[in-house]
Structures are given as structure tokens and as C-alpha cells.
Amino acid sequence: MNFISDNQAGAHPAVLAAISDAAIGLAEGYGEDALTAAAESAVRDVFGTDCAVFFVTTGTAANALALSALCPPWGAIYCHEGAHIQNDENTAVELFTGGARMVGIAGDGGKPDVALMRSHMEIATVHGVHNAKPGAISLSNVSESGTVYCPEEVAAYRQLADEFRLNLHMDGARFANAVVASGVCPADLTWRAGVDCLSFGLTKNGGIATEAVVMFNHALAQDFAYRRKRAGHLWSKQRFLAAQWLALLENDLWLDNARHANSMAAELAVGFTAHDAIQLPWPTDANEIFPVIPEALREQLRAAGLVFYDWPQAPDMTRFVTHFGTAPAEIAHALQAIAATQ
Hints:
The chain is an alpha/beta fold and 342 residues long. It contains 15 helices and ten strands.
């Protein structure tokens, strides 16, 4: 009953099989191989548009490299105050942008308040060269509170970006979970809603090193291949990255994996909701749950075998994460443990 993180899950068998198959014979290096071409085409098919696709090996690289193309060194990147790029990626964004400033904006449920964000931008604009120039907005979908943006919400940030002539980035480390939860197609959550660039992650969803920068704005994609190479994320044997993408995108396996993870979280959330002493501050949209559990009950759950994080966002808050490999039996045992606490 380990609910620490979807990063702790293994690789899907289809991914391992695809890597094994890719090891047979010879192939051109540095992304010039047939598997890479096929994988890039498969990603474009997911979004139904001619986007530029750049495979990398970590979500941190995807976010930091993407934002380096979207925001200049003298610019500001606006995100939620709890965003991953703000709190969990060291100073990678600052390093790759050459010094761009991160501006954390408060907001309910992991979503930055649009009016408050506008106010920050207005102040920065009035100060001119004495302040960091507004450069980009970054949204996490799924958010760091486990909530999911709908296309209309994303479009509201696009409108704000247009007002101040900014670029709009989406951190999609759990993009598959967001797509399944939203009930709309990937295009509606991204380029049709005004997203310029997506950090598309499948590592948490059955891959091993399965991340990509997807540029919907081709002007921003210019010279991005050089950024990736300079950062050390152009693999010589890139076919092994491409093979993972092909395995997960084939027959919508990536969505099936996310659908399972989301459903496991929804079942677990029912147990927390039914307990009088446990509160859920936000809806369980995807595969993360943030129950507020008194310390005595947390000790009982851990004694019963549940493994989870204490989450410092609020007193007594915890985090539970499900994944493609979470077994229904684990959820059943967890629900029994939750019901037994008092």
C-alpha cells in the first residue's frame, strides 16, 4: 500500500518490450533513426496538429528548457506559488533561462488567481526596466493540488497572456491524467486553448525516461534543438527514448494507464470522505489526493501498512498518489484501514 508517488512505479511491460526490440540491430544516432521519426509523428497525431517535438529524459529538463525558449533572462515567469517549477526543480529554470525571475501567485486548488496575476504584471509594467519584464505564464495540469484545468480555464490565462504579450507554457508531467479527467481531447487542453508549449510527460505513467517538449508555436521552436543539445539531453541512442513513446501511445495505452490511476484515486478518496475526522480540501480530479488527517490517525494508518507523504502545504495535510500499477487489492486494504481508524 505504497502511495508515496507515481515516480515509484515501475515501467509498463509494453515499454520494456519496446526497448528490448529497439536494441536489435543498428540504427542511426542522435535522433536520426526511424523510431524517433515515428514517435515524433505519433505525438503530432495525439494533438492533431503540426507541432515540433523534442524528446528529453527528465521533467525538469523539459520545463526548464521549454521556459528558456519562452522567457528571456530579464523576464518574469508567472506560476502558482506551489508550482513544481517554483519549489521542486532547484534553480533549473533560472539556470536555463539565464536568470529569469519566478513569480509565485496564490490561488485556490493549485491554480493561480487570474486577477492577482494581472495585478503583478501591471505593477511590473509600470516599473518598466526597473522590474523583470513579464515573459511567460506556466500552468501545471494536473496542478500541484491534484486539480485539473478545463479548456475554458486555460483560455482565461491565454487572454491574460495576450494582454501582456506573453507566452503560455503547460507543465504536463501528469498530462495523461488531466486528459482523462477532463474528458476532452489533448488538443482542446493545449493549443486550441492557447498553449504555446507543453512539457509532455509519461515517465509517471509507465515510462522510464519518457518526456518531451512539444512546441505548438513554431516561432518558439527555432533553435530549440541547439538548446537541447547544449543541455546534454540529445541522446546518442535516442531510439530507446522513442521506443517508449511508441509503446505508450499505441492503442492509447497512455490514456488507459492514466484512467486506471485516476479510478484508483477516486476509490481511495471515497474512504477518506466517509471518515468524520478526515477532510479533503479539494476534489480528487486525477490521481493525487490531499487528505487532512489528524496525527493520531496518520500513525494508525502507517501502522496498518499505508505509506504516504506528510504534505507541508497545510497542518495535518498528507498526499496519496496512485499509478498505473496500483492494484485494486491495495485500495481495498487501504479502505479497510481507513475505516478502522478512530
